[in-house]
Amino acid sequence: MEWVLKLEAKSGWGEVETIEVGRLERRVVGLTAEEVGLTLSEGKGLLGELARLVLQTQMEEFATCARVCRDCMKLRRRRDNRTRKIQTLFGTITVDAPRISVCPCQNDWGFVDVSLSPLADLLPDRCTPALRRLQAELSARHSYREAARLLSTLLPCDPMSHATMRNRTHRVAADLERKPITQPGPEPVIDPAAEIVVLIDGAHIRAAHGYQSRHLDVTVGKIEVSGKPPRRFALAPRGAESPMATLRQALRDQGWQPGRAVTVLSDGEAALPGLVRAAVGEPTTCILDWWHISMRVQHIEQALRGIYALDPRHRAGLEMVEWRIGRLRHLIWNGYHEEAHDELFGMRHMASEVAYVNGDTFRPAVARLLWNCDDLRRYLANNTGSLIDYGERYRSKRPISTSRAEGCVDEIANARMAKKQRMSWSPQGAHRVAVVRAAVLDGRLRPEANGLLAA
Ligand SMILES: [Zn+2]
Question: How far is the CA of 54 from the centre of ligand 1 (A)?
Answer without folding.
Answer: 30
